[in-house]
Structure formats: structure tokens, C-alpha cells
Write a structure and sequence with these properties.
With 508 residues, the protein is of the alpha+beta class. It has 15 helices and 17 strands. A six-stranded antiparallel beta sheet has the order 3-2-1-6-5-4, sandwiched between helices. Strands 8-7-11-10-9 form a five-stranded antiparallel beta sheet. β1 and β2 form a beta hairpin. 31% of the residues are buried. The structure holds guanosine-5'-triphosphate. The site of guanosine-5'-triphosphate has 15 residues, from α12 and α13. It catalyses: 2 GTP = 3',3'-c-di-GMP + 2 diphosphate.
Length: 508
């Protein structure tokens, strides 16, 4: 096989199987040199803004040495002259381009150059395929054709590569976008299910950390104090600098934060524009509930997907904060309602409904623990006369003071409730060793002592009365007795009635 056949075979192989540009181009350079007799054959690349030309691959066979990596200003090159003049081959360079310093320094006699254009789109000039020689070399049409053919093959390969790079870049962008969409839906889902803001904030910061558009995310839970200041707690390993940035924002940007709370401004604001630290402001109805500081790696204006992810995250967190705040208010309102439903407005004591429910519980407990339960029915004596003498309003005050004194008798799990107008019921849990008569005497004495005596009524305490105490009937419920609150109370009421009769008789 002749050398030319061998070169052609190598070239055919490289065109079919070359993995990279070098494997494709080097056999071409060798073949061109062999066919043309040119001392140096090389491929150059030209910057997209056409300022510089660089020798990429070169094959040198004589005195003339063109180095790979050599960079020259495009305007000074022989290639540019050749292109501008539309000449592919110059046989007598000193004559033709006498003014070229490069040509005279390198002592180039013969020069050949074909452009390598992008094959798609704008036909951009990518580089040149060149040959040069100090010896005068006769370049025939076949060699020029070979140069063109190789130039086109290289252009095709470069274009394919550029195309591939472009496709790869778009695929990477699409993947990054998909990741952001997936991240966004994960964050939204977690926010929908969350029951506490601090725990979800830490989780969201962890999820956002997966994205490479930012170098760090610091999450802070904020609580508005009664004096209008915020307290702040870091939910991940935020450093002092980050904490200081968040504190400064809450302290110095009060007005802007108020506008954001009213939904009249973007909740994404700069915590530090120079450092590219963005703050995501999470708000509920009337306060900032959290801050996330995002240390950006790229300009947000250049990446709409990142901006969308951060905006959407802020919205999801703000919706959660509002939902939790609504829930908290509803719970508080329910508690007030429940308290009103089960308590007497005048004295604040549990009411009859509450008493019946609790007494049922206590009786069951007594049954289970095998302990007696004591029920005392307390009925004011002569309350009608108090109302009559001091007026209904001071009668109310008397009832309040009486209820407060009755409460002082309570011990442990005892209960006292306002049963009706001037009637109260006391419930206490006993022990198996109790002697009923002793307990009865002690409890009635305690109730009477606590509630009798001088009562000062009126705003200035200008009116007073000396109260002789209520009638009290106390019964013992024993395990095995009927577990019925109404029956137990009726028995205590009957006992109280006996006491009242006795007290009346004593007064006669
Ligand atoms: N100021 C005031 N009076 C009330 C209230 N609820 C009930 N009363 C009055 O309390 C009185 C209760 O009636 P009685 O138990 O018969 O009055 P009493 O003078 O204590 O009678 P005895 O128990 O027989 O001594 C009635 O006059 C009611 O109008 C209240 O919330 N405030």
C-alpha cells in the first residue's frame, strides 16, 4: 500500500469513527501536507467576536514550525487577508503580501487557507484550515479541492459538536427546571399537611438546599411581641452574620414589612443586595411569621424558574402561617364559648350543666376506686331580704363574694358550682376509711365558717352586712349506690331543706 493509500485509508477511518476533533483532523492535516508538499498544515479557531485566532492543531514537516496554542490578533493574520481578498492560495507571499510582518518573520513563501464556516444557521466563521511553506510550492486545483473538502468535513463535525453541546445544555436546563417544579410541588404538599410553622420551615430550608441556584438557606421563625418588636429564632445552623442580617431587616424595614403584610409588595426583598442575599418574607394576617435568607449563586433576573420557586415557596408558607393563625384564633374563640357554656357569668363558677357532667364522672370514679363521694347543697338564707335592703346590684356583689369564699373551702379535686339563683353545690371525693358523721360535721362547719361574717358591698365598700351563713345539706354517696347525679343532688337538696327548717326553728 502506498503512503497516499495509507493516508486515505486512515482518513476514511477517522471520518467514520473519530471520537473527537483531534482524531478526525490530524489524519487530514497529514494527508494535505503529503498531497501539497506544504511544510506546515494547521487548523485554527477564531473567537466569536473575531478578535483572536488560535492555532488548534498543527502538523509540521520542515523548517517552518507553527505551534499549537499560538494566538494572534485576527486583524494581523494572513488568513484574514486571504478571506478578504477571496484568495485560497498565494504562491509568492513576499510579493503579494509584502506588508505582512508575520509572513516576513516566518519567511513564508507559499500560503493556502480555506475558511471553516458553521454549516447551520448564520454560517458563522469558526476557523481556518491552512498550509504554509518557506519553500515555493506549486498548489494544484486538486489540492485546493482537498483543502475545501477537509474544511467542509471539519465544519460539519464542529457544527455537530456545537449542536450536541447546545442540546446537552438545553437538556441540563430542562432537568434543572423539572427539579425545581418537583421541589415546588414537594414544598406545597408539605405546607398543606403541616401543623406547625417552625418544623416545616426547617424542612423547607432542607429541601431548597438541594437546588444549586443558591449556596445556603437560613430559616428563622419570628414572633411579634406586644411592644411591636419581633423575637427571632434560627431553625438551622445560621451563622452570626445571617442572624444579624435577619435582625436588621426586622428592626429597620418595619414600614416595608407592613406593606408586605398587607399584600401590597413583593415578599421577596433584598437582605443584602451586594452579597446577593435575598429574604423571603412569610406573613400571616398581621405579622411577619418567618424569614428565609437565600444566598444566591446567580442573578435572579436571569433565572425565572428560581424566582418562581422562591415566590411560590413564600406563598405556600404564608398560606400555612395564615391557616395556623386562623386555627389558633378559632381554638381560642371555641375555648371562650365552651367556658361560657359551662360557667356562670356572674360568679365565674361552673354552672349546673358542668356540675351534672362532672358529678356523673365523679360518681363513676367513686365506683371504680371504691371511695365515697360527698355532695353538699348550699342555699343562702334570707337572700331575698339582702336584695331588698341593698338592691339587686349589691345582691349580685354579695353572690360574687359568697362564691369566692365558698371556693376557699375547695381541696384537691373538689368542685363547687352555682346550681341556681342562690343555690350552690359542693362535691368532694372521700376515702374508704372516712367516718360519715365526722366528715359531715367538718365540711358543713368549714362551709359555714368560710361564708359567714361581714361582707363589704358596693364600690366604696360603704355598705356592709353581717351574714349568718347558708343552710347546708350534705349526703354521702357510696359505691354501689345509683350512679345518677340528679338523684344525688336531690338527696342533698332534701338534706339542706331539713337544715333550713332546723335553723328557722332555732331563730324562733
Ligand atoms: N341579686 C340577685 N338575686 C338573685 C339572683 N338569682 C336569684 N336571686 C334572688 O334570690 C332569691 C332566692 O329566693 P329564696 O331562696 O326564696 O330567697 P331566700 O330569702 O334566700 O329564702 P330562704 O332560702 O327561704 O331563706 C330570689 O328573690 C331571687 O330573685 C341573682 O343572680 N342576683
Amino acid at each position: 500500500m502506498s503512503q497516499l493509500d495509507h493516508d486515505l485509508h486512515t482518513l476514511a477511518n477517522s471520518v467514520a469513527h473519530a471520537d473527537d476533533m483531534e482524531a478526525l483532523v490530524r489524519p487530514m492535516l497529514k494527508l494535505i501536507s503529503r498531497c501539497s508538499g506544504l511544510e506546515s498544515v494547521y487548523l485554527t479557531l477564531i473567537d466569536s467576536d473575531k478578535t483572536q485566532q488560535q492555532v488548534w492543531l498543527a502538523e509540521n514537516y520542515g523548517e517552518l514550525q507553527i505551534s499549537e496554542g499560538l494566538k494572534v490578533d485576527w486583524d494581523d493574520t494572513l488568513c484574514k487577508r486571504a478571506l478578504d481578498e477571496g484568495r485560497y492560495v498565494v504562491k509568492n507571499v513576499p510579493n503579494c503580501w509584502g506588508s505582512s510582518q508575520a509572513a516576513s518573520e516566518l519567511k513564508i513563501q507559499t500560503y493556502a487557507s480555506v475558511p471553516v464556516h458553521h454549516v447551520h444557521g448564520d454560517q458563522q466563521l469558526l476557523g481556518t484550515l491552512c498550509g504554509a511553506s518557506r519553500r515555493g510550492v506549486e498548489i494544484g486545483d486538486e489540492v485546493t479541492e482537498l483543502l475545501h473538502l477537509c474544511g467542509e468535513l471539519i465544519a460539519l463535525q464542529l457544527s455537530r459538536k456545537a449542536h450536541l453541546m447546545h442540546a446537552l445544555e438545553r437538556a441540563t436546563q430542562a432537568e434543572a427546571r423539572l427539579n425545581k417544579v418537583e421541589l415546588n410541588s414537594q414544598i406545597s404538599r408539605q405546607c398543606l399537611e403541616a401543623q406547625s410553622l417552625p418544623s416545616i420551615l426547617a424542612k423547607v430550608a432542607e429541601l431548597l438546599d438541594q437546588d444549586s441556584s443558591w449556596s445556603a438557606i437560613d430559616a428563622f421563625h419570628t414572633v411579634l411581641q406586644a411592644n411591636g418588636d419581633y423575637t427571632l429564632s434560627a431553625l438551622n445552623q445560621a451563622n452570626d452574620h445571617s442572624i444579624a442580617l435577619a435582625e436588621r431587616l426586622l428592626r429597620d424595614e418595619h414600614e416595608l414589612l407592613q406593606v408586605i403584610i398587607r399584600n401590597q409588595a413583593d415578599p421577596l426583598i433584598w437582605a443584602d443586595p451586594e452579597e446577593q442575599v435575598l429574604a423571603l418574607v412569610v406573613t400571616s394576617d398581621d405579622s411577619v411569621d418567618a424569614l428565609l435568607l437565600v444566598y444566591l449563586q446567580q442573578d435572579l433576573a436571569q433565572c425565572q424558574d428560581s424566582k418562581f420557586l422562591l415566590s411560590s415557596t413564600t406563598n405556600s408558607l404564608s398560606l400555612l402561617a395564615s391557616r395556623l393563625e386562623d386555627h389558633r384564633r378559632l381554638e381560642a374563640a371555641n375555648q371562650v364559648l365552651e367556658h361560657h357554656a359551662l360557667h356562670d357569668v356572674l360568679t365565674g363558677l361552673p354552672n349546673r350543666r358542668f356540675l351534672i357532667e362532672k358529678l356523673e364522672d365523679k360518681l363513676s370514679e367513686g365506683e371504680r376506686l371504691e371511695v365515697p363521694i360527698y355532695i353538699a347543697f348550699v342555699d343562702l338564707d334570707g337572700f331575698k331580704a339582702i336584695n331588698h335592703t341593698h338592691g339587686h346590684d349589691l345582691g349580685d356583689v354579695f353572690l360574687q363574694l359568697f362564691a369566692a369564699r365558698l371556693t376557699q373551702v375547695l381541696r384537691g379535686h373538689d368542685l363547687v358550682a352555682r346550681y341556681g339563683g342562690d343555690e350552690f353545690v359542693f362535691v368532694g371525693v372521700g376515702s374508704p376509711e372516712d367516718d360519715f358523721k365526722t366528715v359531715q360535721h367538718q365540711l358543713i362547719t368549714r362551709i359555714r365558717e368560710a361564708t359567714s361574717g361581714v361582707y363589704e358591698l358596693g364600690p366604696e365598700r360603704c355598705e356592709w352586712l353581717d351574714y349568718t351563713g347558708p343552710s347546708v345539706g350534705l349526703i354521702e354517696w357510696q359505691p354501689g349506690d345509683v350512679c345518677d347525679a340528679d338523684i344525688a343532688i336531690a338527696k342533698a337538696d332534701a338534706a339542706m331543706y331539713e337544715d333550713k327548717k332546723q335553723r328557722r326553728n332555732q331563730l324562733k
